[in-house]
Each structure stands twice: as structure tokens, then as C-alpha cells.
Design brief:
Largest sheet: 9 strands, mixed
Number of domains: 4
Radius of gyration: 21 Å
Strand content: 25-35%
Structural class: alpha+beta
CATH architecture of the largest domain: 2-Layer Sandwich
Shape: globular
CATH class of the largest domain: Alpha Beta
Distance between the termini: 27 Å
């Protein structure tokens, strides 16, 4: 059972790191900071934990500060004498920027926080800096969204929320009727972070191959932690995550993607900490889909250590706890080393209903495949699952790594035959 109260004792003389909103992949931050000798404080950006998201486990933390009142939170944080404040997930970015700035700690400052969080402001900031980006428009009126798309005279276009993640609410629209339906379905709803979509975004469609580009920066020096190629399946207006394949660092288009992301980091003022960029390689070159000032949501420290020379979470901790050592190791704009071929698979589930059982024999069969390193079922007995339409509704995530990519391909094929037998489901 997840603990919602801090339980770790303070260590005399230990440096203190602060994590804001340690949901999702943010759960990996406390362990890596603690492994490097730091105590960790958690800051909660909302009065209550965000509904619909698994709450953070507060066991590794020496304190939990609910930052409804920023001045009060700052006073409590100052007593811990922290060395850094970092976001655990998207919702923690604005507060982490503000707290680190007010406490005089390394960070990215608050001046460009909105551009690092709001997807419209993000792209407009790139446009102002002369960085290649999509055409776009935002509005709280579905009719206005449709009119903009019609004026462009070029379909498809993409309709999506301003501040969500995991492909939540994203639709690829091929005509005005699609745009109207997507806009009307999205406006007034809440995103995965429980924010109301009072305005939404429509953008030109970026045609090409999509890549993940992960970085950690320290004092403006960027280390490229990994580049992964997305493979997604089209399902009507949705593109469903399937595979993320790790590229060799010396293969195309890694160098071009890295150079482009450097311009994005500079334009958005991302000089410190982790960043997770999604970039489309179009016929005209790389164009940003979006970037988050946080860890890659698929990042698992043990898996990434297995297939790379380091993992993004541990490098983030090192960059703040011992920047001199970090910069000796990564003195300039450095690039990762691939130790093994690797693939992350987000299974597309076809079932719809309430989970009544999990077949351990099927999970064991998947786990026994030669390249499988980690299997993460994303539903439990009593949960409602639905046919996969986005990353959040994928019922199973599997991490594969091997010296021979053919082993991964064979195991992936076997997983696709087993995935819909993991859960027993009733209507």
C-alpha cells in the first residue's frame, strides 16, 4: 500500500533535495537522490493529491509540504536548507521553477515557466526565436477552432489540450467535421492533471517519423541521455503508442535531432535538469511536437542502466548534488553510449470492462522471454479497462533489451499474441 505520509528519518549533515509532485515517473527521484547520500523533501503543489493519478509514495521523504501558500512553503523549505528543487511530473514544473528561484538555487527560473508548460506558449516562444515549429491557434470556441483549420486549407490538423500529457485528448482531424467533433468533445472536460480545458489547441500536422530526445543539463551544458524512435499505430483520429526503439548514438538522425533540441532548450531557458522532447523528423527537418522539463515518462533506472551508460534520473541527481563531478564526466554537449539494443512496448489492449482477475501464468510466460527485462501490468482486479486509445489506456508496458535485435523482434511478436490474455474482464 502506498504511504501518504513521510517516513524517512533525517540524516545529520546530509544535503537535501526537494521533489515537487512525485507522481508517475517522479517516483524514481527520491531513490536516486538517497542513493547519492541526500535526504529528500516532497512538495505537494495542490491541497489534495491530484484525482485519478496514483498518489506518490512518501515513505522515502523526511517531510511533505503542501504548498497552497507559497510563502509558508518557502519558510518550511528554507529550514531544510535544500540544494535543489526539481519537478517530479508536469504539474510540478511551475512551482519547482518558482521555489528554486526564490531560494536562490540552481534552476531554470520562473520567467519562462509558462512556455515550458503551456503548449501554445511553448511553440510561440520557439517561433519568436526563429526555431522551426508548427502553425497553431488556441481558442475556447469550437467554431473558432474550425474556422482557423479551414483558413489553413490543409488537412490533417491536430487538436489537443494545452497542458496535458500521454496523448490525452489528442486527435488527428482530416476535415472540418472532425475538427468540430474533437473540439466539442474536449472543451469543458478535465485533462489527466484535473485541469479544465477552457481553451484548446489546434496545430498543423507534422508528417514524418517521431523521436524521443532525452537530456540532462547542468549550468547550460547538455548531455544527451538517449534518442528513441516512436512507432505508433493509427486508429481513426488517434495514434496509439506501440514501440520506442533506442537508436545507436552514431546513427542518423541522432546528431541532427540533438542540434535541433539544443535550439529548443536555449529558446525555452532550459539550462538545468531533465528534459524530455518529442520531435518529428519531417521532410524539411526536425520540428518539435512538445517538450517537458522532466524525466522521460517511460524511464526506468535499472532498465536504462542496462541498455545505456547511465539513466536520466541518476544523472539529474548527480548534476545537482555534485555539479563539478558531473561536468568532469560530461564537459560539453556529450552523447550517450548504447550498451544493448532496447525497446519499450506499450501494448494495445482490445478488452473493455472490469478486471476480475490477472493470469499470473501469462505474465510469467511474458517475463520468461529472453529479452524481457521488466513487465508492468497497468491494471489490477477491480479496475475498469477500455480498448486502448492513448498511452494512459494501454494495459501493459514491457521493457526489452538484448545484444541481438532479432531476439527483441521475436519476443515482441510473442507478446502481441499474449497481451489480451493477461486480464480476465467482465462487462
Amino acid at each position: 500500500m502506498t504511504s501518504t505520509a513521510p517516513a524517512a528519518p533525517a540524516t545529520p549533515g546530509a544535503p537535501v533535495a526537494v521533489v515537487v509532485d512525485a507522481y508517475s515517473v517522479g517516483k524514481h527521484l527520491a531513490p536516486v537522490f538517497r542513493a547519492r547520500g541526500a535526504d529528500v523533501v516532497h512538495v505537494q503543489s495542490t491541497e489534495r493529491f491530484i484525482p485519478g493519478v496514483h498518489p506518490p509514495d512518501l515513505t522515502p521523504y523526511i517531510d511533505n509540504i503542501v504548498a497552497v501558500d507559497v510563502e509558508s512553503a518557502l519558510r518550511r523549505l528554507a529550514a531544510h536548507r535544500p540544494v535543489c528543487v526539481v519537478p517530479g511530473q508536469e504539474t510540478g514544473v511551475p512551482l519547482a521553477d518558482l521555489l528554486s528561484e526564490r531560494l536562490g538555487l540552481p534552476g531554470n527560473g520562473s520567467a519562462q515557466t509558462t512556455a515550458r508548460r503551456d503548449k501554445y506558449e511553448m511553440i510561440e516562444t520557439l517561433r519568436a526565436a526563429g526555431v522551426a515549429c508548427a502553425r497553431q491557434h488556441k481558442s475556447g470556441d469550437a467554431r473558432d477552432i474550425v474556422e482557423w483549420a479551414e483558413r489553413q486549407g490543409e488537412y490533417p490538423v491536430v487538436v489537443k489540450p494545452l497542458s496535458s500529457a500521454s496523448a490525452d485528448g489528442v486527435s488527428i482531424c482530416r476535415d472540418a467535421a472532425d475538427v468540430r467533433a474533437a473540439a466539442e468533445a474536449l472543451l469543458g472536460t478535465t485533462d489527466i492533471f484535473h485541469r479544465t480545458n477552457t481553451e484548446i489547441l489546434v496545430q498543423s500536422y507534422l508528417d514524418g517519423t517521431e523521436y524521443v530526445v532525452d537530456t540532462v543539463s547542468c549550468q547550460g551544458h547538455r548531455h544527451l541521455c538517449g534518442v528513441w524512435r516512436y512507432e505508433k499505430n493509427d486508429l481513426g483520429a488517434k495514434r496509439i503508442y506501440d514501440k520506442e526503439t533506442l537508436l545507436a548514438p552514431d546513427s542518423a538522425p541522432v546528431a541532427e535531432l540533438a542540434a535541433y533540441v539544443d535550439t529548443v532548450l536555449a529558446a525555452l531557458g532550459l539550462r538545468s535538469g531533465a528534459a524530455h522532447a518529442e520531435v518529428m523528423m519531417t521532410a524539411a527537418g526536425p520540428v518539435l511536437v512538445e517538450i517537458g522539463a522532466r524525466l522521460n515518462g517511460s524511464m526506468d533506472p535499472a532498465f536504462h542502466d542496462l541498455c545505456l551508460d547511465a539513466n536520466q534520473a541518476d544523472l539529474l541527481a548527480l548534476s545537482y548534488l555534485d555539479p563539478a563531478r558531473y561536468l568532469r564526466r560530461f564537459p560539453g554537449d556529450t552523447v550517450y553510449r548504447r550498451a544493448r539494443h532496447a525497446l519499450v512496448h506499450n501494448a494495445r489492449g482490445l478488452q473493455d470492462g472490469v478486471v476480475t482477475g490477472v493470469d499470473d501464468a501469462v505474465l510469467t510466460k511474458i517475463q520468461a522471454l529472453p529479452s524481457v527485462r521488466l513487465v508492468l501490468p497497468r491494471a489490477a482486479v477491480g479496475d475498469r479497462i477500455r480498448t486502448t486509445t492513448d498511452l494512459l489506456s494501454s494495459p501493459l508496458r514491457v521493457y526489452l533489451a538484448a545484444d541481438d535485435p532479432r531476439t527483441i523482434r521475436d519476443d515482441y511478436d510473442e507478446i502481441t499474441t499474449l497481451k489480451d490474455h493477461v486480464y480476465q474482464v467482465a462487462d
